[in-house]
Design goal:
The chain is built from 15 helices and 25 strands. By secondary structure, the protein is of the alpha/beta class. Strands 2-1-10-9-11-12-13-14-15 form a 9-stranded mixed β-sheet. The chain has a 4-stranded parallel β-sheet with strand order 4-3-5-6, sandwiched between helices.
Length: about 525
Amino acid sequence: MDTKPIQSSQPPVNANLFAALAAAFPADRRACAVETDTGLLYSWQDLLDATAMVANLLESLDLEPGARIAVQVEKSVEALILYLATLRAGLVYLPLNTAYQSAEMAYFIEDAQPAVVVCGRSNFGWISKMAFQAGTAHVFTLNDDRTGSLLDRAAQFSRSHTIAQRQADDLAAIIYTSGTTGRSKGAMLTHGNLLSNARVLQKYWGWRTPEQGGDVLIHALPIFHVHGLFVAIHGALINGSKMLWMAKFDPKAVLQAMPRATVFMGVPTLYVRMLTEPGLTRDAVRNMRLFISGSAPMLIETFNDWQQRTGHAILERYGMSETVMLTSNPCRTEDGKRMGGTVGKPLPGVQLRVQDDGGKAVSVGEIGGIQVKGPNVFKGYWNMPEKTVQEFTADGFFKTGDVGRMDDNGYVTIVGRSKDLIISGGYNVYPAEIEGYINNLPGVAESAVVGVPDTDFGEVGVAVVIAKPGATVEPAAILAKLKATLANFKIPKRCYVVPELPRNAMGKVQKNLLRNQYQSTQ
């Protein structure tokens, strides 16, 4: 008797995120997928062809499985194509903020050990030298005017490409996020993490299919972090929806695009700036279906002002680099009401709990640490197995580090962030990192950086500095030194030199007192 197992004739299911995105493209591949603010039109077929060519180029480099592709370039559709091609080739995408300077880039390249680095022409000299010294084999340029060595090389390759076979647990991207120790951590996100979240959001936010009239997304966010790269782009592509692509946010341009769009995603700062435009009227947004805000807390005044001016309640949601989206205010009326000041309810498939420092659940309405579990939660931190273990509970919940409460209807409110994280204009700013640079400046004995409320950015940093005995330290000089070293969004907006910092009995700086002292200073 033949006891050999029956071999299935069906090919294995490909869990590659790109395969799922491409499968959702409209049947009419000649239709416009992306329209830029300069009038360029990219069809769905253009995306398929271009990603195939870049994927073939990457595969020709004979890279190791799991090789990282580090990218620091200005926003462009070609940069989007590079991201999709990296997925298509089964490699790991590593986006880096375009504001990062030499000290930051040196750390990321050394830590991630990318096989390929792609940068803008203007930075090629110093980045290529840094990358080659760290062992990177290939450095390409990609500019926002459709030029660069990456495109020149890719043009030589075929438009035909077989999507790399990947499992759901295979790594798709690494997003660097910092901790209060100042050392950045690479959050490892898998194909399964990203695809599961995209599908949940597609349904929960009611993305309309072409048969239902379709949705059109205004994409005015950067594409080096979760909001613009994953939430916005995946949302449009998994639904086969057109994007109106803006290289940079401009409130007037966004308002002019709204009659041709239905969905807009932004950080609170973008909504604040649009509220200053006289052209923001109910007639201007008459075709819009959904306004989404995230990446930073929105002031209730902004939520109310927007609703009064436009008749639309902004949908606030909550996510992290390590988890993509976790919660969302309802989109459909049958799911509930949008509540300003909250980030809504846990998304389908997400388990969220609030616990005290002892690991016990707090009562409804009480404040505690937010912990989450679900298919969207990341695989762990790159090259930090001990840190990964520390950030998960014994029963598999990720400790977000955020502090909040949940009401009896399941709505979550974030009331603070542990470890003094500052979110300014949607960007994470970690005080310990800034303090480290300030403390190394001549004449500085010690510093403390705190976040204070700001109507435009949500929060801004304030640096409070103690000079060494006999030394003279000028606030303007400190800020100037930082501007030459760090990304602009990390630079404190104000700096003060004081004789001492407030401390508790254990000698720890009491940052809560500093926040209270400087929140009203201008």
